[in-house]
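Crash report, auto-generated. Payload:
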Amino acid sequence: MRTADWRNRDHPSYWAFLVHRVSGLTLALFLPLHFWVLGRALAGEAALDEFLRWTEQPLVKASEVALVFLLAAHLAGGLRLLLIEFVGWRRQAKQSWVAIAAGVALFCALAFALNLY
Amino acid sequence: MSARSETRLWLAQRASAAVLALCVLVHLATMIVAVKGGLTAAEILGRTRGNPAWAAFYAVFVAAVAIHAPIGLRTIASEWLQWRGRGADAFWLVVGAALFAIGIRAVAAVVL
Amino acid sequence: MAMREPELLEVDVWRSGGDAGGQFRTYAVPREDAQTVLDVVTWIQRKLDPTLAYRFACRVGMCGSCAMTVNGRARWTCRTHVAKVARGNRLQIAPLANLPVVRDLVVDMRAFFDKWAKAGGQFTPTASRRDDFVRVAPDTPARREVDAAIECIGCGVCYASCDIVAWNPAYLGPAALNRAWTLQNDVRDGDHPARLAAVAGDAGCHACHTQAACTERCPKQLSPTTSIAGLKRMTARAALKGEL
Ligand code: SF4
Ligand code: SF4
Ligand code: FES
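Recovered output after restart:
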């Protein structure tokens, strides 16, 4: 049995699927860390501040922007899926939803980055 | 898992997704505004401490995420790692419960 | 007028055998106007190597037997022009993915059709020959859903293009679910609840991630993705009512 390769996968809906899956996976892995950090506030403001100072590093900042992008991408892609599955969008509609989803995600990440730096 | 339970899981994931869509919109907006001029603990806690509206919002957010994320991870594990069956299902149930627990702890930390 | 030297196509064709189960072998085939990929395969078999195994019947896009992987994508070869798919003068022809290879370009379609049966692909009549014809108005919503999905020729292109089929061996696949959707919308059919149960769950419609490779590649321009989304709504409704 042979399996399809990337020549088959190269179409908008597949990329939308892959972005949705990878963003979802990354966000799910990030969540425990996120919760742990916020939980530091139990130990007082100072503990949380200590961590927030650590996030001032350029690399950490860059990954925050990436996370915001992934969150926005997962949101936009998820809305697209809900529309296809529950409203029953057809073929042509799908392609433009991929583009709109990508646009929304980029916009959010940019807005976040502009405020962060 | 039976077709019936799978259908319910799918529904749970879509329902939680709809809730999350609203939560994430609010979360994104808050983040974009909040990071202006740098993040401090005082600023975050000043917004959330003793505020029942934020407390309720984050509690709902955490609950929805604790439903949504493990169902998604379960699917990924079954397709990409071929890890499925009872053991896997039990594991993802525990992951969901754990996520809920540390999530609620985090909410408590910022609102109490 | 001087005869033009015929342009040559360089065609890599998957041949069974050897340790890896098979490999590509390259053939030179004269290029012609309005030449289909199936013409190319036939030319190779007639002129160069009679042992080449492949499958076709109608040559006009009706029977669904000629599907192969052409330059990485599943296509019906009898209605695919070389001019549309060749990269320069190169063509790569392989058997369909996601199905066991019998020999060369021929795959075993059993799993594909067994899954149609599993998805409740048979029509279950509710009337006998003594009953009058059922009148189904063409503009009812259910009839429109059927119309949009009914023209499937069972070529397996969608099945070979769907990653979920490869990742989840139990998955019924786009064609079988698309078929089930047409029957679920058929007012004459008497097996709706059982079929709905058969297409729900992890082997059925809920395994689909709306990648839409099936819809992208279906030569009949059907949208199994849309049909599967319909099944998801139908099963969800039944589950909420406690009927599933
Ligand atoms: S839409 Fe569903 S059935 Fe079609 S290719 Fe994608 S995952 Fe497979
Ligand atoms: S749905 Fe389209 S691609 Fe799939 S078997 Fe039917 S005709 Fe072929
Ligand atoms: S030979 Fe019948 S569809 Fe191509």
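Post-recovery validation: Residues 224-240 of chain C form the longest helix (17 residues).
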